[in-house]
């Protein structure tokens, strides 16, 4: 991939240079927003009982939620940040396929999960970021995930964002329903996300904030009560204020790469080939060379 700068996503072709545009969007233009959007994208998948049920049966999410979160984020970030055709990108996709190959996962569930990665960042930025995605950025973002999904063996993928949006909406409408495994995985996810920002003593104050960012179908599928109206109002004001401040700031100059973030899960670094293993299978890890 070409070196990334603060303006490198502005003049690329979304049909042929979609990976460069997606990388720029995720690490420069909307680095914080897209990371938050993808957190909620994963959260929305837990509202489908077949998905939450599989996670609950493996036991890994509840036993080591931070490790599973880090493994998922790293495996998705490796091809985005280093390139789908890079050595690291190919290794991450192979690892994703190996992990998913252990289980019987329907193509329909896989398509839905992929659709959340396509749709949630576009929706989040339209509502909460300094600006919404431009048309060519939406096309590039979609094309990137079509390429990724194809490499993961997912079939019958939509060809554009409108198709993914329809798939995402229709699948949620027909498959969101309450299940105990939804709530079990959602509770573990909420505790994990709150731990990124708050001491445990303040978790009771943080839980309504997370619920305030959920729509009614998601809340019902998780068995959650809606947040109080004043919490929703405070969250809306806070996000709007942040967006207004970010609009006044210069564009980020250096990319924020998630693969370079220090993580307590992997204090000595990580091997792509060992992501997704149980804690006992890779306690001493080292980072592969970045280049």
From TrEMBL:
Lineage: Bacteria, Pseudomonadati, Pseudomonadota, Alphaproteobacteria, Rhodobacterales
Origin species: Maritimibacter dapengensis
Protein name as catalogued: DUF2236 domain-containing protein
Pfam entry (one): MPAB_Lcp_cat
Domain of life: Bacteria
Residue intervals of the ER-bound oxygenase mpaB/mpaB'/Rubber oxygenase catalytic domain: 60-236
């Amino acid at each position: 991939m070409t070196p990334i700068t603060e303006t490198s996503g502005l003049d690329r072709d979304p049909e042929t240079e979609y990976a460069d545009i997606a990388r720029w969007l995720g690490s420069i233009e909307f680095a914080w927003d897209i990371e938050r959007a993808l957190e909620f994208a994963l959260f929305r998948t837990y509202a489908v009982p077949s998905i939450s049920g599989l996670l609950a049966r493996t036991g890994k999410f509840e036993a080591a939620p931070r490790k599973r979160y880090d493994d998922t984020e790293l495996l998705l970030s490796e091809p985005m940040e280093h390139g789908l055709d890079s050595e690291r990108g190919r290794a991450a996709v192979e690892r994703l396929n190996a992990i998913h190959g252990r289980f019987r996962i329907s193509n329909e569930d896989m398509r839905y999960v992929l659709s959340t990665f396509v749709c949630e960042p576009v929706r989040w930025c339209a509502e909460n970021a300094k600006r919404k995605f431009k048309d060519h950025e939406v096309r590039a973002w979609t094309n990137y995930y079509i390429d990724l999904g194809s490499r993961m063996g997912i079939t019958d993928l939509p060809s554009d964002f409108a198709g993914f949006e329809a798939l995402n909406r229709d699948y949620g409408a027909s498959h969101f329903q309450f299940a105990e495994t939804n709530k079990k995985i959602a509770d573990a996810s909420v505790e994990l996300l709150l731990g990124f920002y708050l001491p445990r003593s303040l978790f009771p104050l943080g839980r309504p904030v997370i619920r305030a960012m959920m729509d009614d179908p998601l809340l019902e599928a998780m068995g959650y009560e809606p947040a109080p109206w004043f919490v929703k109002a405070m969250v809306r004001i806070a996000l709007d204020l942040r967006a207004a401040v970010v609009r006044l700031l210069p564009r980020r100059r250096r990319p924020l790469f998630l693969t370079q973030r220090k993580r307590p899960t992997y204090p000595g670094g990580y091997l792509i080939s060992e992501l997704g293993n149980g804690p006992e299978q890779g306690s001493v890890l080292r980072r592969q060379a970045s280049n």
